[in-house]
Amino acid sequence: MPPDERKSAIALGVQLPGVSDEEHASSLAELARLGKTLGVDVVARVTQRRAKLHPSSVVGAGKLKDLAALTGGSGLVPMGPPGRRGKSEPDADDAEAEDADATEETAGAPAQAKADLPAAARASVVLVDHDLSPSQARNLERATSAEVLDRSAVILAIFQRHARSREARLQVEIARLSYWAPRVREQSGGKDREGGGIGGRGAGESSLELDRRKLRDRIAELRAEIKAIEHEAGVRRQRREQQNKVALVGYTNAGKSSLMRVLTGSGVMVADRLFATLDTTVRALQPETRPRILISDTVGFIKKLPHELVASFRSTLDEARDAELLLHVVDAADPAFPAQIEVTRAVLDDIGAQGPRLLLLNKIDRVDAARREALRDEYPDALLLSAKDPEDVARLHDRVQAFFERDMVEAELSIPYAQQKLVAEIHASCRVLSEAHDEHGTRLRLRARPEVLARLRAAV
Ligand SMILES: Nc1nc2c(ncn2[C@@H]2O[C@H](COP(=O)(O)OP(=O)(O)OP(=O)(O)O)[C@@H](O)[C@H]2O)c(=O)[nH]1
Ligand SMILES: [Mg+2]
Fold this sequence. Notes:
The chain is of the alpha/beta class. The protein has 16 helices and 14 strands. The strands form three sheets. The protein has a six-stranded mixed sheet with strand order 7-8-6-9-10-11, sandwiched between helices. Strands 3-2-1-4-5 form a five-stranded mixed sheet, with helices on both faces. A three-stranded antiparallel sheet has the order 12-14-13. Helix 5 (about 150-160) packs antiparallel against helix 6 (about 165-180). The radius of gyration is 27 Å and the shape is elongated. The model is unreliable at about 85-115, about 185-195 and about 200-210 (pLDDT under 50). Magnesium ion (MG) binds near residues 256, 257, 276 and 277.
């Protein structure tokens, strides 16, 4: 979205039991950042403490009115099938019971703003920090007259915008269609929004108004297409199988691509926005080591990553699963980082990435000395560093190299001249200490990891 087309949005969240004020605030702040990435500016937050989401409207009737005052909507959830404006649905659980125990809280929203808000000041988008059922989304849209996007829809829309490679685009498209498929009938029954929405419906998205079967057919088609690409990617990966592989993983915006750049001298994109990277890049560690070590940079994780996305990015995440060492990058300057570590761990477990993990507390240049000390105590096995500090990066380089050297053993191999292809492979996968030629072939003294050595011995 061009900058002049930025829209105003309200962030809506329910603070559920067991969620601290801090967690709740940080989750909404993250939602606002996601919105910003998408081109919408969160101008106010509407939050409510509730035991659970209101089944039809997420928040109670009173809070819904507050919300609608900021978007210029009626604040009422009409009864009857969509499209027919009825009177407000009487909400059993609402009127008395719920609003009594709910603590009303409308942060940043002037209470008297109400419906006479000038059109320019009205928010046209509501971002909801929870996954909505199709009917909750529809009811909120009708009560607010705004476009309503839940967390998954926001993330999917960002992925859709940032996907560049054919593979990533197909993966996003599958995830997006899977997400919208169950919602299509609900949405298309109502009055269709004119022009382009930001959530991935709207202009040029008329296919979504078709029935679900067509969507499923399309998903199947895309899956077939991606299978072919994945096959190629699999072959590429297989070719790298014998090499030492390291994957940079972690929460979005932690600094994975920044580290990728300085560790490998590659020009991958670094940006202060969420989900800058969606495509996997693999490059050799620089200065180059013997044997070479390959580093991969890939998509970041986030709280409540839509499962459709995890499913369709599974092949991209294979790089993480195949890695011998995972560099788990953390933004140590973000107060919410411990929760982000947990999210990353959960996703890694989910995709079956079992390799040893080295925790990197990055952006340490933005952490004061006292806090650094505390972090050292709290995370004794972690490496504190800044991607911006060349000395730190050199230390990380050595640490990665040492990881692969630790269990290397020394050996001698003699490769017959008829098998010279192996010599090149040895140079790629071992550290060659000396090399001599005699009448039998090439004699090499080398250091290699035991499994590499076993494979080479079997090949000679
Ligand atoms: N001060 C400081 N900023 C950093 C450091 N590392 C990264 N950054 C900044 O943090 C922002 C995000 O960095 P990226 O490297 O794009 O983060 P990422 O983990 O690749 O993010 P995604 O690709 O979106 O998942 C950028 O603005 C970087 O310049 C660091 O060590 N110190
Ligand atoms: Mg990145």
